[in-house]
Write a structure and sequence with these properties.
Elements: H1 2-15, E1 29-34, H2 39-58, E2 63-68, H3 69-73, H4 75-78, E3 87-89, H5 97-105, E4 110-112, E5 135-139, E6 141-142, H6 153-157, E7 161-162, H7 165-177, E8 182-186, E9 194-195, E10 206-207, H8 208-216, E11 223-227, H9 236-244, E12 251-253, H10 261-267, H11 273-286, E13 291-298, H12 305-318, E14 322-327, H13 335-339, H14 346-369, E15 375-383, H15 390-399, E16 410-414, E17 420-424, E18 433-441, E19 445-450
């Protein structure tokens, strides 16, 4: 989400005559776009600001700005004189950046953290920063109405509002025409996307499953992903839309947070364990082979050993392909901070998190091993960070696909199920589709042999 927001900021600044600098040592403006969802994220920002502060002391004309959720939450702290922060700008005020910069140029601090019920930046064409020119993000909505007890997002990003679907489709088509071959539709809760067209009276709204099919219909060579789904809102209509279109990727990120119904109730997640497992059953029935990933919080307020065990048992029952796992981090101002006691000792949180991670590593490894021998269509993203080595390299050489030529590049890409695949190919280029037969796997990566010449995705 912050990548997408940063691309909107870059577009606004380019329109005002600014251009990206190659590094902070050549920049007149230095912005950090921030996240407040966990304490660790904020601590990293404070560390980054120390680096920016030394740059400002070296070059007095540098302007430093803090953008996003942390700006919304900590505006007074950020503007303390010793921080040397000149601007604090919330996520709904990016259009005001040129005016705020002008204010700083006259010697004043600049602040705008007003939240909006209308702003979606729908008319702004983002500048794709640090892109691989294969995948791009599109924000389809902003804000959140769910009010989960642990979450700061509704307070820092405001109420939920959906973007005009025609502007989303237009942006996706433009991305495809520029050579990108994958878009990820972004929202705090994409399943609650709902847009009422102006001037159409009481006509039915455009729902998320409608939007998915509209974007998928642009071209079958365009892969469509989305994040994040909410278990209480993931409908069968969305699943059937995915089943109808092969270019809607077979992967759903469905945060469970806890496997215990009592913890979920304290979290105000508005579903229970049985509901979540019902959604998993529906996914497997309607979209066989669909990968499912999740988020899990260890040590939420009042969590008992039995409730922790419920999480482990749900993980085993579901068999997540991968997961993002964290210790509970109390965020000031949330319902949990106001009404619940953060009473699970840090040592126990750490132990429970380690148990969750160990189990997920096992589940991820089993998921990847199940893929050995299968052939997947892989969208090539670029060169792999590491060359294929050891048993994997020996397997490829034995198959004859390498012919003993060790200079064949090691490439990487992703399956429709969002699994990373590395393989060797002389001809594959970013944006191509390659069929790869999986020969080996770790808990994080699949390795395989190309089964056909690359099919260019670039038209």
């Amino acid at each position: 989400m912050n990548v997408a927001d940063s691309e909107v900021v870059a577009a606004i600044l380019e329109e005002a005559g600014y251009r990206p600098a190659k590094d902070i040592h050549h920049a007149d403006l230095i912005f950090v776009n921030t996240c407040s969802i966990r304490e660790n994220a904020e601590q990293r920002v404070w560390g980054r600001l120390d680096l920016f502060r030394s740059e400002k002391r070296r070059r007095k004309n540098v302007t430093i700005g803090v953008l996003g959720c942390m700006a919304e939450r900590l505006k007074e702290d950020l503007l303390e004189s010793d921080r040397l922060v000149d601007m604090v700008v919330g996520p709904d005020a990016y259009r005001e950046l040129p005016k705020l910069i002008s204010s700083v140029d006259t010697g004043h601090k600049a602040v705008n953290v007003l939240l909006s019920r209308e702003e979606t930046y729908a008319d702004i064409t983002p500048v794709r920063l640090e892109s691989n020119r294969v995948s791009a993000f599109i924000s389809i909505m902003r804000g959140c109405n769910n009010m989960c007890a642990y979450c700061v997002v509704p307070y820092t990003r405001g109420a939920e509002r959906s973007r005009d679907p025609e502007t989303i489709v237009s942006e996706a088509r433009d991305i495809f025409d520029k050579g990108y071959r994958e878009v990820t539709l972004l929202g705090q809760n994409v399943d609650s996307y709902r847009y009422f067209e102006e001037g159409h009276g009481n006509s039915s709204p455009v729902m998320f499953h409608h939007l998915l099919e509209m974007v998928a219909g642009i071209d079958p060579r365009l892969r469509v992903r989305f994040s994040t789904s909410h278990p209480k809102d993931l409908s069968d209509e969305v699943l059937y839309a995915m089943a109808r279109h092969e270019n809607i990727c077979r992967h759903i990120h469905l945060p469970v947070q806890s496997g215990s119904s009592t913890v979920l109730e304290r979290m105000n997640r508005k579903y229970d364990r049985e509901w979540y497992l019902d959604r998993i059953t529906a996914i497997k029935r309607i979209i066989p082979g669909c990968a499912v990933s999740t988020d899990i919080i260890a040590g939420f307020c009042g969590e008992t050993e039995e409730e922790h065990s419920d999480t482990l048992s749900l993980m085993r029952e579901t068999g997540f392909d991968f997961a993002y796992m964290f210790k509970y981090s109390e965020r000031p101002g949330t319902k949990a901070a106001r009404h619940l006691k953060d009473d699970v000792p840090e040592k126990i949180k750490t132990r429970r998190l380690n148990e969750i991670i160990a189990l997920q590593n096992l589940l991820s490894s089993e998921s990847k091993k199940d893929d050995i021998g299968k052939v997947f269509e892989v969208l090539v993203e670029g060169r792999a960070k590491k060359a294929i080595a050891g048993k994997e390299a020996a397997s490829i050489m034995a198959s004859g696909s390498d012919s003993g030529n060790n200079i064949i590049p090691t490439m990487m890409g992703r399956t429709s199920g969002n699994k990373v695949v590395v393989f060797r190919s002389k001809d594959a280029q970013p944006g191509d589709y390659v069929n790869v037969k999986i020969t080996s796997a770790t808990s994080a990566t699949l390795t395989g042999n190309t089964m056909s010449d690359p099919v260019t995705g670039r038209g």
